[in-house]
Amino acid sequence: MELNIVTLSQSEWTVMEALWERPKTLMELVRELGQSAHWAKSTVTTMVRRMEEKGIVTYKMQGRAKLFHAAVSWEDVVAEETSSLLQRAYHGSISMMFSAMTKKQDLSSVEIDELRAILQQAEEASK
Questions:
Q1: Whole-prediction pTM value?
Q2: Buried-most residue among 14, 16, 28, 32 (CB within 10 A)?
Q3: What is the mean pLDDT of residues 98-124?
Q4: Spatial CA neighbour of 58 closest among 47, 46, 72, 39
């Protein structure tokens, strides 16, 4: 199932981060998310079932266990989340977003150099 808009709740992000590392069985997710997020087995089971219904998680049978996979890529989700934030908070203005971000935190010289390189690549690509 291909999704046009991929947005995740905070809880869905938690599950997806585990699955983006590698596919996992439900019991592997229960152990991992029990430790990292302090979720009960029922919470993990409910989240995975709902995410499967939404088409963002799929599974393949591995013996008698389901091996769950992320059905959407990290890149697609991050692109949609970034676009959504840009539209909601900055009315689509990338320069407003960067201005706000640089005013609120000190950037290292390495980060500034990385931003310059990104802007230079964008400028070259637009020619």
A1: 0.80
A2: 16
A3: 90
A4: 72
